[in-house]
C-alpha cells in the first residue's frame, strides 16, 4: 500500500509561546490527514463509522512555526472491523513524530461491524 500524503504548514495557532508545535495539535493534524484520505468515503448510511480505539504518539523532532511538512498515513494492519494506521510527520526527509492508532468501524448499534468494501477501496 502506498502512503497517503497530506501537506501542512504550521501557523501561530498550532504553537506554544516558544513557537514549538503544541503536543495536542499533532493529534488534530493527524485527524485532518485521515479525513482528507477518506474524503467522500464515510460511514454507510445508519452506521457510526470509524472511532479511535487506541492511540500512541512518539515525538522525535519538534516542529516549529512556519515549518512545512507532510503527514504520511498508511494502514499497517487490516482486520474485519478495524484498521491499524501509522501516521508519520515528515519534514525535509526527517520523521518528526509518529502516531500509531487503531480505529474500529461501528454500526448503528455501536458494536463493531465489518468495514464496507467501498471504504476499504478508498484506503488502498
Largest sheet, in brief, is: 5 strands, antiparallel
Please state the oligomeric state of the protein chains shown. Answer: single chain
Helix count, DSSP H or I runs of 4 or more residues: 2
Please state roughly what percent of the residues sit in beta strands, choosing from under 5%, 5-15%, 15-25%, 25-35%, 35-45% or over 45%.
35-45%
| Count of all domains | 1
Average pLDDT over all residues = 93
Could you list some keywords that capture this structure?
Thiol Ester Dehydrase, Chain A, 124 residues, alpha+beta, 5-stranded antiparallel β-sheet, single chain, elongated, 2 helices
Description:
- It is a single chain.
- With 124 residues, the chain is an alpha+beta fold.
- The protein is built from 2 helices and 5 strands.
- The protein has one domain: Roll (Thiol Ester Dehydrase, Chain A), CATH 3.10.129.
- Helices cover 17% and strands 41% of the residues.
- A 5-stranded antiparallel beta sheet has the order 1-3-4-5-2, with helices on one face.
- The model has no long low-confidence stretch (mean pLDDT 93).
Itemize the secondary structure elements and their pairings.
Layout: E1 4-9, H1 23-37, E2 49-59, E3 68-78, E4 82-91, E5 94-106, H2 117-122
Antiparallel strand pairs: 1-3, 2-5, 3-4, 4-5
Question: What's this model, at a glance?
Answer:
The chain is α+β, with helices and mostly antiparallel strands and 124 residues long. The protein has 2 helices and 5 strands.
Amino acid at each position: 500500500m502506498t502512503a497517503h500524503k497530506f501537506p501542512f504548514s504550521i501557523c501561530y495557532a498550532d504553537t506554544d509561546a516558544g513557537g514549538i508545535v503544541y503536543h495536542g495539535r499533532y493529534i488534530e493534524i493527524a485527524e485532518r490527514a485521515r479525513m482528507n484520505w477518506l474524503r467522500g468515503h464515510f460511514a454507510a448510511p445508519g452506521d457510526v463509522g470509524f472511532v479511535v480505539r487506541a492511540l500512541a504518539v512518539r515525538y522525535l523532532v519538534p516542529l516549529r512555526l512556519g515549518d512545512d511538512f507532510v503527514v504520511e498515513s498508511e494502514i499497517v494492519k487490516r482486520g474485519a472491523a478495524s484498521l491499524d494506521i501509522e501516521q508519520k510527520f515528515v519534514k525535509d526527509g526527517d520523521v518528526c513524530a509518529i502516531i500509531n492508532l487503531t480505529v474500529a468501524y461501528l454500526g448503528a448499534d455501536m458494536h463493531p461491524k465489518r468495514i464496507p468494501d467501498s471504504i476499504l477501496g478508498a484506503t488502498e
